[in-house]
Amino acid sequence: WQNLTPTWIEATFRPAWDAHLKLLKPFIFAWEPGSHPNDVNFFKIKDGFTLNMPYTSNRRSLSLELEGIAE
Prior knowledge:
Strand content: 15-25%
Structural class: alpha+beta
Number of helices: 1
Low-confidence stretches: none
């Protein structure tokens, strides 16, 4: 993801990272569940992943390396 606001990172992503994602446990991800109710995925962050969130001006980028099952 690109051009994320620092507010979104700290209010939305950081709590999820600190509480669950950094433990590299599987999780369910639903992108816009109201508009895309069938687009729900089961993921795990790849072992050995290091979080990197570079700044560009007043925005951040975020990249996750995921493993999942496609059906």
